Amino acid sequence: MKKMMWSSLGLSAAFVAGFAAGGVLPGESAAHAQAATRVFELRTYTPDAGKLDLLHARFRDHTLRLFQRHGMTNVWYGKPMDAPLSQTTLIYLLAHQSREAAKKSWDAFRADPEWTAVAKQSGVGPVKVESVFLEPTDYSPMK
Q: Among residues of the chain, what percentage have pLDDT more than 70?
């Protein structure tokens, strides 16, 4: 029984020491694992009337995978809950290593033969696109 108690005490001490050392030793702590510099791109898509479901299908079936292939990180996809935007709008968030990396990724994506075929076959047609680049604030939980 004493041996088990000392083993438990030793493991607990090692656990606490590990957390304490995290603030002293060089390297990245677990709380700051996302602290690498990156930018976010908030995009809003508005397809022609009646084409929103086709746009959702294109993203679900092809676009997310193609974004990933070209170095873009899929973060979040959503749709407004209230009409009229719920019937006309897709909003999503991507992460990029930098604005320069975003430009390279978008150029490669647009030139991808699979993407051009998917875009043509999807039946979505022209889409109004709004893009805003964002950087996290110093107090943002996600960096």
A: 75
Q: How far is it, in rounded angstroms, from Cα 46 to Cα 94? A: 17
Which CATH number, 3.40.50.620, 3.40.1080.10, 3.30.70.100, 3.40.50.920, labels domain 38-134? Answer: 3.30.70.100
Distance, in Å, from the CA atom of 139 to the CA atom of 120, rounded to the nearest integer, reads 42
Whole-number Cα distances in Å, 88 to 45, 46, 52, 139: 8, 6, 6, 33
Torsion, CA 72, CA 53, CA 78, CA 117, rounded to 10:
0
pLDDT (tens digit, 9 = 90+) per residue, 99-112? Answer: 999 999 999 999 99
User: What's the CA gap between 9 and 119, in Å, rounded?
Assistant: 61
pTM of the shown model? 0.74
